[in-house]
Design brief:
Elements lengths: L6 E10 L6 H10 L13 E10 L2 E9 L11 H4 L2 E9 L4 H16 L10 E6 L8 H14 L3 E5 L7 H15 L1
Parallel strand pairs: 1-3, 1-4, 4-5, 5-6
Antiparallel strand pairs: 2-3
The structure holds guanosine-5'-diphosphate and magnesium ion (MG).
Family: Belongs to the small GTPase superfamily. Rab family.
GO biological process, one term: endosome to lysosome transport
Membrane topology: Lipid-anchor
Length: 181
């Protein structure tokens, strides 16, 4: 019967970017559909599981690795990156320096981890806190350019607060992970 043909995938997904950009809030929105202002979590890595019933034959389990409190290090160990299949690289649109940092995070990731074919693992750039300001067309063409140059599979404006594009961005990432797996 149909039940017996379901394939389950377990994928490790890294959530990286500077402190305060909203990584933990995005994970909480995705997994619990909750948002709490000023929510602070303790130091260490934080793990969350998101189960997606992708289609009739496919279940995807995302093991989300949120680098809680390790943002200052800026270069995590290879061991931390090991076996990740995708990444969400987050910046805060209200804080310009966090975009530059996001690109540094992406470089560090690509230096430490590659798919077996030598390509970078799929990574999506998240322009978070989009509830705070409207982006201009020039900003979106800049982000298009950055994605091209830095090998992101795409970018999304997101808001953990208002629940904008969080699911969409993750589904987009999963689509790319499934293609590269
Ligand atoms: P992290 O350090 O990257 O894990 O960031 P947090 O998830 O702890 O969020 C840092 C701060 O930004 C907290 O005060 C959050 O409430 C706030 N924040 C997170 N996401 C959003 C968002 O989408 N919109 C707004 N306005 N604030 C957000
Ligand atoms: Mg956090």
């Amino acid at each position: 019967d149909a039940e017996s043909t379901v394939t389950e995938h377990l994928y490790k997904v890294l959530v990286i970017g500077d402190t305060e950009v909203g990584k933990t809030s995005l994970v909480r929105r995705l997994v619990k559909n909750q948002y709490a202002e000023g929510y602070k979590i303790s130091v260490g890595a934080d793990f969350a599981l998101k189960i997606i019933n992708w289609d009739r034959n496919t279940v995807v389990r995302l093991h989300l690795w949120d680098i809680a409190g390790q943002e200052r290090v800026r270069n995590l160990s290879r061991v931390y990156y090991q076996k990740a299949m995708g990444a969400l690289v987050v910046y805060d649109i209200t804080n310009d320096t966090t975009l530059g940092s996001a690109l540094s995070w992406k470089c560090d990731l690509d230096n430490k981890l590659r798919l077996s074919n030598g390509k970078p693992i799929p990574a999506v750039l998240l322009a978070n806190k989009c509830d705070q300001s409207r982006h201009s067309p020039s900003e979106s063409s800049l982000l298009d350019k950055i994605c091209n140059e830095k090998d992101f599979v795409g970018w999304f404006e997101t808001s953990a607060k208002e629940n904008i594009n969080v699911k969409e961005a993750v589904n987009f990432l999963v689509r790319h992970i499934l293609l590269s797996d």
